[in-house]
Specification:
Elements lengths: L4 H5 L2 H20 L9 E3 L1 H9 L19 H6 E3 L14 H34 L2
Antiparallel strand pairs: 1-2
Helix pairs in contact: 2-5
């Protein structure tokens, strides 16, 4: 009987990748806290989950000059600009304390996803050994 990793791992592997990408976005926000007119961005897990559950729409490439390497088109569609609680004079929308709190929360979620994935692999390993 063959083991399907997709069904065995569930959504945990995708969640781990999502958390890693969100960490990049949040750390980019923190790094640009002093950049004038920088707009803070974020990725919402609920929007990404909706995209996973619904069929994907493929982007038509009509020219070889079109570039999609900057961001994955699916990820770029899920990124949103953040509305600050208090506007900055220079147009920057990064609120460092909130970004750091979100980054910390995301790091804990990453760790939880990693632990879930590790437990799944441990279970698969035990099943293969017949324990």
């Amino acid at each position: 009987m063959a083991i399907s990793f997709e069904s065995a791992l569930g959504i945990h592997d995708e969640a781990l990748l999502f958390r890693a990408r969100r960490a990049e976005v949040l750390s980019n926000n923190i790094a640009n806290a002093d950049t004038p007119n920088f707009k803070a961005r974020d990725i919402e897990f609920a929007h990404v989950l909706e995209g996973v559950m619904q069929p994907k729409v493929k982007q038509a490439v009509t020219s070889s000059a079109h570039k999609t390497e900057l961001l994955e088109p699916d990820l770029a569609a899920d990124m949103m600009y953040r509305i600050p609680h208090q506007a900055s004079v220079d147009g920057n929308t990064v609120e460092v304390q909130q970004e750091m709190a979100r980054y910390t929360e995301n790091a804990m979620d990453y760790q939880a996803s990693f632990q879930f994935l590790n437990k799944k692999f441990s279970g698969l390993k035990s099943a293969i050994k017949g324990e």
